[in-house]
Amino acid sequence: MSRIFIMLLLMTGFADASPVRIKDLVEFDGVRGNDLLGYGLVVGLNGTGDGLRNAPFTEDIMSNLLERLGVNVTGEQFRPRNVAAVLVTASLPPFARTGGSISVTVSAIGDAKSLLGGTLIMTPLNGADGQIYAVAQGAVIAGGASVEGAAARVTLGVPTSGVIPSGARIEREVEFDLNSLTAVRLALRVPDFTTASRIETAINSKFGRQIASMLDSGTVAIDISLASIRSVAHVLSLIEVIQVEPERRARVVVDQRSGTIVMGAEVRISRVAVSQGGLTLSVEEAPVVSQPSPFSSTQTVIVPRTSATLEEEAGRSLAEVSGTSLSELVGGLNALGVAPRDMIDLLKTIQAAGALHAEFLVQ
User: Fold this and answer.
1) Of 9, 1, 14, whose CA–CA distance to 340 is shortest?
2) Measured between alpha carbons, how far is 330 from 333 in angstroms, rounded to an integer?
3) Would I find Signal among this entry's keywords (predicted)?
């Protein structure tokens, strides 16, 4: 069976790295979103909803909903197949205002087969403090399909989960007075002392005074009072567009499931000699049926016939691999003529020999 693997080399370092805006490198302390969660019902499904015998909570919420609408279902036996219980999740962005809209994700929690064509009915969304911050409702857009017959079923994607773009209306704001802050901390998404120092230098150069101070590899503090600008928002708007060249760590990332290899431009390999080979084992079964003569007392016998071979690839001579740049490294590895799957094992071995100067991550 042939196998196809992909080797991806991230060659971003042949030229000088491009500067990046500070807003793409850091998070502003205090400027954050909030997660919301709700429990509701999706109706209007074409017989693909929850089986109420296996999901009694769906029947309970359906009964409560109908009673609130003035429909008395006490003691009634109703088992619709066009209703599904779902969890609704969303993220309330920072500084979101009442009346605005946010998108929500809808996920089935019962044994519903699909949410295609369904409509989420009014669902309150609660924050971590238990308060209702938004209300969701609307048609669910599911990203899959499911086809079922008497003896087979085919599912494409995940039809039991979907989204409602702008499907929730904000009903409550998160109180946060940005202008009351006298200092703001910048939290680096990838902590690095060099990058933090460059951010500090760039900000101080922009404002012409010492308003930024590096606290550690992941934090740069901004003294708003020294900026001499009328509001915190104006200070942050000037800071976030300042461009800085981030420092990157040498890293090799490997996905063993797909055979993908990603190398950063900073990866280096010391001079090392490598030889790579492999074994191929082949086993074939060709049983022979021994048929007895007519009217004999013997029985039909299946005689096994097995052919097994073990082949070893022709040994490759030692190849010298080294790399002071990514192009040299790639050329040296390609000279070995190995497949990406074997390349993963090869890189592991080179790292074990102490010749790979990079962080090796396996996913």
Assistant:
1) 9
2) 5
3) yes
Residues 133, 113: Cα–Cα separation, whole Å: 30
> Around 221, how many Cα atoms within 13 Å sit in the side-chain half-sphere?
10
Q: Exposure of 174 by Cβ count < 10 A (0-12 exposed, 13-18 middle, 19+ buried)?
A: middle
Q: What are phi and psi of 222, to 5 degrees?
A: -115, 125
pTM exceeding the 0.85 threshold for the entire prediction: no
The 10s digit of each residue's pLDDT in 155-190 is: 667 788 899 999 999 999 888 888 888 889 999 998
Task: For residue 342, give the amino acid letter.
Answer: D
Position 81, amino acid: R
Dist. CA 85–CA 112, nearest whole Å: 8
Q: What is the mean pLDDT of residues 218-232?
A: 89
Helices 193-207 and 232-239 pack at an angle, to 10 degrees, of 120
